[in-house]
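Here is an idea for our session: we take a single protein and study its fold together. Start from the sequence, derive the backbone structure tokens from it, and show both lines together. Once you have written the record down, we can walk along the chain together:
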Amino acid sequence: MIIELDGEWDQMAHDDSNSVSAGESGDVVGAIGICNLYLWLYRTTKGVMVEHASVVNHNLFVREQFHLSPHDRVLQFASYCFDASVEEIFPTLSSGSTLVLRSEEIPSVEKMSEAILRDRITVLNLPTAYWDLWNISIGDEFLEQSDLRLVVIGGEKVSVESLRAWNRNLQSRCQWINTYGPTEATVSCTAFLDDDKVTCISDVPIGRRSRTRGSTY
């Protein structure tokens, strides 16, 4: 079933919220199960269907890896039309953390730093390419005032040089995680924590799967 909120909101507002019917077995008709469709995203011309159980497993994976708590303030950078928003919204809310929305337009890296300081962001999830640009722009004022404790990136291969530049400024102040996963695997399925004490690398790893996820090939 597809509901067009803009066109059907007036009708929905007058519906009786107590008019849920039950089948002969007593089960609620239309009750949502773990195998029901949660989201359907188009990457190109191919649609990807993700079930409720997969999203729940992903939420557990993110909460475990990111150590989310009610003290965190997480920026929703991704559009809700993009699968990365699932990683920003639902683990955050289910952990009691605060979800902070960005402006409608993607900010410049300078405006991003200003927003992080102003909104006291503690957890940031960025596309690799954007993080690359923002990484270069970080100045001393930001380092002194930022509440960031975790930056998560994903979407493209990470440059070793960029990671080294990050570590020179922020390794002791902020944890850094590289994630990987196609939409078919529900946003992300592996994570590499830079505190794994890798001393000499030629490529930044995509990391290991969480115990909440299935096999990764």
Q: What stands out?
A: The CA atoms of residues 149 and 174 lie 4 Å apart. The first helix runs from residue 5 to 13.
